[in-house]
Amino acid sequence: MQAVLNRVVPVIPLVFAIVIGYLPVEGQSGEIDDLIVAHCVADGVAIPRKTNDAIFLRRVYLDAIGRIPTLAENREFISSTEPDKREKLIDALLSSSGYSKRWFHFWADLLRVSTESQVTRSGIVGSAYIEWIQNALEENIPYDRMVRDLIGRQGNIWEPENAGAVGFYLRDFGMPLEHFSILMQVFAGTRMECAQCHSHPFDRWTQMDFHHLAAFTFSVRASKYPKIYEEIKGPERSAVNRITIPMRFASVHSRPWPLKLPHDYAYNDAQPGDIVKSKFVFGPDTVHSSADDSGAETFSRWLTDPRHPRFTRVIVNRLWKELFGAPLVPPPLDDLRGDTAAYHPELENALIELMREGGYDLRAFLKVVMKSDAYQRVATAGNINPNEKPHFESPCLRRMSAEQVWDSLVTLITDDPDRPNLSRRAYRIRYLNDLRIRAEKVCGKSPDTVRAWLRTEAGKKFAANPRTTSCPEADALMQELKSSMKALDRLKNGGINGTPREFSEWKKLHYRLYRASELETPMPPGHFLRTFGQSDRSLPNNANRQSSMPQLLALFNGELSGAVENPWSRVMRSAQVAESGGADDLSVVDTVFLSVLSRLPTLEERELASGETPATLAAALLNSAEFLFVR
């Protein structure tokens, strides 16, 4: 990266740089800025000023942890006089649990994560897959290792290290070639699906190329039945069936199924029905593997090799687009080709090198970009024109994602927006614990051993009633949930100016109001999240941020908007504290503005809001464009 800078930065006219108020700076974030400024100066593009603290605070909360800041978080940051408070806040947010809650949606959209029974065919796979992704984010597993674990591992859903691979492969059960196409789209930004049926008409891929690569993962399949069920014959099979029913569609294993060319293969380099050997057709020539490796393991190492021409490039562009609103290459990002040139090659190369040198640490990469001046400048308004190259002098003005809107409303309504969904976690823990106990009885053992055990009294007893009822960890979570709900009752007589019915409505909603990452996914059509564009998980990156009339109605008179105006919502209770004089220097109007928009009102806004009730003012701000957009 520094070598690139040595060539580029000196071309900035020093006098011009002084005039626009910019000089080259130190550090990785500064290197990004130097490249962007050089690009802007060369093309005569004006560089916006840095945002004020209020705009920065809201932007970084939404980008880093997916929700607006609370009133207390607003006040703490704005009152701070530390010169490096922005850098410290970025570090704190990206190291918090909120990071995994926000960035889970990034991966759920790409990987088409779903808990719908039609997709998973199992009561637990979707939930365990979600847990695996969130744990990978919380533990900051390097991106290349995360991808290798998704593609190269084999095992069962009740083994935590294998839950990612099971969820990944089961997503396209019975469609291994379609699954491979999406794999290449997601991780390599390469569209090869056309070449499944014929040589690509607009790219270099032949039908044989597609099958050579697909052969690496073709034999890795999600299993409909546990292996022991397929091996057991005779009178004991019904007993094994009772034990293993919940374990169906919950494993991934390699099968001895070779990939054959389709019956209508029409090229002269092979015959229809020929077996296709796995072979790399681009990228690194050699990948080290052992004799015990499956083809999928070898493929995962090839794909994640730092020398791979697209693996690092596509994740860098995806992350940059999340923060700046546009990728570094012309769209579509999922269709990179050999001649796809970046708008700003020096910047893209520098970011690719940053990702490689950082060991594919996604948090570290995001920290560097967020600490740059470019990220912290006033947003660029207007739509990206595909025919004009962006200069990335600042982020684009963006509408919140569906999950950001939902999570921000949860922040305004509940006492603790980041609290876990204990009921859902208890269900997952209990279900997986049951599967582990069943597996200990019959899996990984020879058929003869299982038959002999089933003939014993202990075996007969377990087979007659294999369901596990005891799970202390899950029981403790449910007890914690009950205690937390009882704690809310203390607010009922806490001097809040509201009716018992309003309290009951707020508490009832509070019981099921969690951040989007703690809910089933995707939510059903008609739900608030789907109304605001949550992906239906049918295609990678299928979410949208288009406006619609149902969205307007949902904010104007929907259940969540009503809950924000409820006297027991977090923002309304804060307003009552301010009204009673207990909020120090904050007025009621200040409190509502800071809570909803993360800024204080202007003099004109303060005058207009004078005399309005807190609920009316909150309703007006929720329906403003400023609330819905990341500025």
Which SSEs are present, and which pair or pack?
Layout: H1 2-8, H2 14-19, H3 27-43, H4 53-65, H5 71-79, H6 85-94, H7 98-111, H8 117-120, H9 125-138, H10 143-152, E1 155-156, H11 163-170, H12 176-188, H13 207-214, E2 220-223, H14 227-231, H15 237-244, E3 251-254, H16 295-303, H17 311-324, H18 345-357, H19 362-370, E4 398-399, H20 402-413, H21 422-442, H22 447-454, H23 457-464, H24 472-488, H25 500-512, H26 528-531, H27 549-557, H28 559-565, H29 570-579, H30 588-597, H31 603-609, H32 614-622, H33 625-628, E5 629-630
Antiparallel strand pairs: 1-3, 2-3, 4-5
Helix pairs in contact: 3-18, 4-6, 4-7, 7-9, 9-11, 10-11, 10-16, 15-23, 17-18, 20-28, 21-24, 27-28, 29-30, 30-32
List the defining traits of the structure above:
single chain, disordered N terminus, 3-stranded antiparallel beta sheet, 631 residues, mainly alpha
Biggest sheet record = 3 strands, antiparallel
Relative helix content: 40-55%
Strand content: under 5%
Mean pLDDT: 91
Q: What is the terminal-to-terminal distance?
A: 30 Å
User: Which regions contain 5 or more consecutive residues with pLDDT less than 50?
Assistant: 1-26
Radius of gyration: 27 Å
Secondary structure category: mainly alpha
What does the overall shape look like? flat
Name the strands of the widest sheet in spatial order. 1-3-2
Number of DSSP helices? 33
Q: Strand tally, please?
A: 5
